[in-house]
Amino acid sequence: MTRPERRRRGRLSALVIALAGGAVAAAGCSPAGGGRAPAASRDSWQGTIEERNGVAHVRNPDTALWEDAAQPPLRFEPDGAFGGAASALSSIAGAVIDGAGNLHVYDAAAGQLVAFAPDGTVRHRAGAAGRGPGELQDVRGISTDGDATIWLANQGGRRLDAWGTDGTPGRSIDVNELGLTSVYMGGFVAPDRLALLTDAVHHMATNEYVVVDPAEPPSVTARFSIGAEPMVPIPPGMVLQLSHTFAPDRILVGTWEQYVLRAFDAGGTLRRRVTRPVLYLRRPGFALRDQQYVGVALGGLAAPIVLASGHWLVLATWPTNVASPNIFAETPASERPAIEWASSLDLFDAEGRFLYSLQYPGRQMPDIGRPWTVGPDGALYTVNTEPFPQVRRYRVVLQPPVAAGARR
Questions:
Q1: Omega into 387 within 30° of 0, i.e. cis?
Q2: Using one digit for the tens of pLDDT, what is the confidence trace for 94-122?
Q3: Please, are residues 397 and 388 in contact by the beta-carbon 8 Å criterion?
Q4: Which of 30, 148, 356, 395 fits a 20 to 30 Å CA distance from 67?
Q5: Domains, the chain, ranges and CATH?
Q6: Is residue 299 a contact partner of residue 314, using CB atoms and an 8 Å limit?
């Protein structure tokens, strides 16, 4: 298998990353806190796909194609875990899978890169907290070329460090040499390029991308911007990042407030836009306190994770008792009501048709944890914080209902 084919997706860990200055749950497609009750059984998809100026616009109905399935057509079968008392894993600030199926976790609390074998045993702990060669601190993301190199945006994103999958530190790139100040790690895009996000400040929710060829000498090969949809005004001095996943041929982007998923090519050109008519998502809230702006994250729509089958898996999280994000943020923390959360895992086919939704009322995160990435064997890896930091591996089982008339 060629190197680009083996390369896995990079992923940013949060919907709001920076403010600068196993079984599934009971299924159903009527979200807690919003949406409509399930409709009658359908034999064909009721949405539309229109090509306009090179962009496929996919408009989904408010009901899922498989929502009346007698049994959930989407299951997650536990297939391993990484972490726990024996591993002494303190935190999970990033996780990637190499081409051999080994898991590499950046433990921010320890300032180390921890590697696990596919069976969950610890292979090695590499690095130490600090700012010197081979030391890690204030890491802003981790990615892998899917072969033998792990890349980290180290030292507050001012240094790109390469590590071997055996735990050996490699070369470093000072981002100042690329004309940059600091960056966040995105992921790999073809051919053998690192996609990075800058921490540039805008008055709207817009992310700036820089694509870097890490060969000697390193060079910037592309720059472009991707904004939120709808655009969200940002108070002065703040940086708000969207959720992204990266594959060799595309960048997948989530958002807040409206249910909009987008797929861009590696050069930042929009190729597919997928929507659902829901009203329950909330954008972040902003408030001015003591002459400084602060933000409160209120969930959102994570970027799709592309499963081995080509289907998209999307995590949505929202508060059911917050009507106005800004009013909530402006309310003193001691006077705010506790947020009542709901979440879902939504399944789409490769074209963007909405197929099914697993609902988790009263939970900010699904039972399986936060979907993170897909390994070279097609397994889904999730990140969990409770009862302790842990990465779990699941086999994803899809069993489309035969009577639904759905595409496989």
A1: yes
A2: 999 999 999 999 999 999 999 999 999 99
A3: no
A4: 395
A5: 3-400 (2.120.10.30)
A6: no
